[in-house]
Amino acid sequence: MRTVLVIGAAGKTGRAVARALTAAGAEVRAAVRSPDSGPRAYAAGARSISVVDLESGAGLDEALEGVDGVYHLAPNVHPDEVGIAERVGSAAARAGVQRFAFHSVLHPDDASMPHHVRKAEAEHVVRSLLPGATVLRPAAYHQNLLDAARSGRLAVPYSLDAPFTNVDLGDVAAAAALVLTRPGHEGLTLELAGPEMLTVRDQAAIAVDVLGVPVSAERISPESWVTGRGASLSAQARSDLLAMFAAYDHHGLVGDATTLRRLLGRSPRTWSDVLRASGS
Ligand SMILES: NC(=O)c1ccc[n+]([C@@H]2O[C@H](COP(=O)([O-])OP(=O)(O)OC[C@H]3O[C@@H](n4cnc5c(N)ncnc54)[C@H](OP(=O)(O)O)[C@@H]3O)[C@@H](O)[C@H]2O)c1
């Protein structure tokens, strides 16, 4: 696999995937919303950028010229996730790319979370356009809580006692690079979860041990999240995330690490591993 187009390449996940693809020997072309995002993509290893508007599809055909593979990840909780999958998948099918991977989510069929259901529909769209596509279903990333742990306060708007099998974003990116650069993953759906089941309370206790500083676990109310961190989001994104917090209260987000362990040829990184690496 020589050239891979990474959709959303300047974002949190896209930069990790660009780094992993570059390390695996692929040449990354970064699809970015605006030239202003170019420096972030280049810093993650991209060799070229293409400006693409995922909401209209403008720029997609040009971005796909000479591309062998595509890694598609949609902007977080985007209301038109399904339309974006349709535009990216159709353009990739027109371009005749050899490999296509779609970044979905763990348990896309969980009807209590509207943004998961949109991922399930997007998976279906991708598969109907590109039957050989590989679907990755990552758990929540350890990195979502890393800065908060390092600041000494894990404050979340859901239960401190709900179980999660969070996964290292670097491991997810390594798996993404693998399925695009090596044969044998066409048509597969891969659940990517971390190797341990932890609550936020557990994560705070482990952070105390590993970082050697006080780290509290605090539950904040959904109402204070709405007026705090949620205030800058669109009404739709707020509503999606409130539904996600309620689902987390009910059953957390738990998956199985077997597939990721097999792909990586080692145990996926634990929360302790990620905390230790962040200190160096
Ligand atoms: N966080 C998790 O734990 C987790 C777990 C599993 C799956 N996921 C999935 O991972 C995906 C990526 O999440 P993320 O947090 O990495 O996303 P992100 O940081 O928001 O990155 C998304 C990228 O898409 C770009 N973008 C937004 N609108 C666009 C448009 N109209 N046209 C072109 N580009 C556009 C953004 O550009 P700008 O940089 O210019 O804003 C950004 O670089 C999501 O689909 C999410 O559901 C996340």
Kindly list the characteristics that best describe this protein:
280 residues; alpha/beta; Rossmann fold; seven-stranded parallel sheet; two-stranded parallel ribbon; 12 helices; 9 strands; binds NADP nicotinamide-adenine-dinucleotide phosphate
Can you characterise this structure?
The protein has about 280 residues and is of the alpha/beta class. The protein has helices at about 10-25, 40-45, 60-65, 80-95, 115-130, 145-150, 170-180, 200-210, 220-225, 235-250, 260-265, 270-280, and strands at about 5, 25-30, 50, 70, 100-105, 135-140, 155, 190, 215-220. Strands 3-2-1-4-5-6-8 form a 7-stranded parallel beta sheet, sandwiched between helices. The two termini are about 35 Å apart. The structure holds NADP nicotinamide-adenine-dinucleotide phosphate. NADP nicotinamide-adenine-dinucleotide phosphate binds near residues 73 and 140.
